[in-house]
Amino acid sequence: MRRRGPLTLIGVSTSVPTAPLMATGRLGREQLSRLDAILSQLAGESPFRVLLIHHPLRSTAHYKQLTDSEGLLAVLQRRSVDLVLHGHDHVHSTIWIDGPNGRIPVVGVPSASEAVEGRTPAARYNEYRIARKGHGWPVEMIGRAVAAAPEPVWESERRLPRERSAPPSPAIPPPPCARRCKRRASTPPGPGRPTPPAPPPPPRG
Fold first, then answer.
1. How much is the pLDDT for 72?
2. What count of Cα atoms within 13 Å lies in the side-chain half-sphere of residue 154?
């Protein structure tokens, strides 16, 4: 557990040895018990709690599943966290799970391997803006993805994962390719295309 201002970051490990071609994870009883105790201690405080875990709480790929996810879900139903961040699946996903004070967003991000399935953006990270407002914690999630050019990173999504009534904003298209723009700018005028006027000469001093 680490505290950064009003944030409390809680990390757990799901890494375990597995058979070939398997990539499942497990927390184990001891770690689940420790997590329950930590969250119980934080119950009397008011920080924003973020749970960091590698394996997803739910996965459609059986070889990537967290084998004791039901035990973790049971802990989170009793103890409060505000946001769960995970990896491993390498796909863009947001699910909601039940917590003692409402539903909890669980967010995963895609990797470059998403390009194999033709999904875009294929590689992305999320930036979270968290601020205290009254008795609540509004959270803004900004998705940033890799672009070809001219900007190396572009904003692909912006939404409020903790406000269920707020629909996600539509995906923002990537910036135009600089190479294509340069090619268009350097293409000489063809038949029927007007020749752009020459720039005026500089003033003489």
1. 95
2. 17
